[in-house]
């Protein structure tokens, strides 16, 4: 897809906080189990170099939180402002994150899509991802709200 949007891709910075959280809320990415402020706090303490935003004229219009655990790369909080979706920005910020992971030595990227978010499977397929026959299991070690 041709992309003529002037979106600048860069690392997340502290002053982006409220806009990024607003973007995630607008895109339906926040849940009762995930405190976005805590998620950002943990990410910036751990690997801020892999947390990206897209900015147009001072406004945060896209985000992508990548991670590399030494074995696999991961993608979280991929979002494009609803009014700008379908213009190639999601694919662009994903390519940016993939390049950063590759440069870190990461050989493969995994990501999780909520079962209810079926449209995302089409998006990720379009940009080269495949569905693997795995079940994701998890165990919560502490609850953000309970630990306040
Ligand atoms: C997922 C998301 C980031 C995609 O961003 P986007 O900027 O709209 O996507 P792009 O314009 O870069 O699309 C890239 C390709 O995927 C396709 N695509 C995008 N969204 C799609 C959808 N919902 N269904 C099917 N195909 C889709 C586009 O048509 C395009 O294909 P093309 O290159 O053949 O034209 C955006 O829809 C979003 O923020 N959604 C809400 C948040 C979310 O659910 N995030 C993912 C959590 S797992």
From TrEMBL:
Superkingdom of origin organism: Bacteria
One family name in Pfam for this protein: Acetyltransf_1
Keywords: Acyltransferase, Transferase
An annotated Gene Ontology molecular function: acyltransferase activity, transferring groups other than amino-acyl groups
Domain (N-acetyltransferase) ranges: 7-148
InterPro entries attached to this UniProt entry: Acyl_CoA_acyltransferase, Bact_Acetyltransf, GNAT_dom
Protein name listed in UniProt: GCN5-related N-acetyltransferase
Organism this protein belongs to: Desulfatibacillum aliphaticivorans
């Amino acid at each position: 897809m041709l992309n003529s949007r002037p979106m600048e891709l860069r690392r997340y910075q502290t002053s982006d906080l409220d806009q990024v959280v607003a973007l995630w809320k607008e895109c339906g990415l926040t849940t009762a189990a995930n405190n976005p402020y805590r998620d950002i706090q943990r990410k910036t303490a751990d690997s801020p170099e892999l947390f990206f935003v897209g900015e147009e004229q001072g406004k945060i219009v896209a985000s992508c939180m990548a991670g590399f655990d030494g074995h696999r790369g991961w993608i979280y909080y991929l979002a494009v402002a609803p009014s700008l979706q379908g213009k190639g920005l999601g694919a662009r910020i994903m390519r940016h994150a993939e390049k950063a992971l590759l440069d870190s030595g990461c050989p493969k990227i995994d990501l999780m899509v909520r079962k209810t978010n079926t449209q995302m499977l089409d998006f990720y397929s379009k940009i080269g991802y495949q569905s693997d026959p795995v079940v994701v299991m998890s165990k919560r070690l502490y609850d953000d709200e309970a630990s306040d």
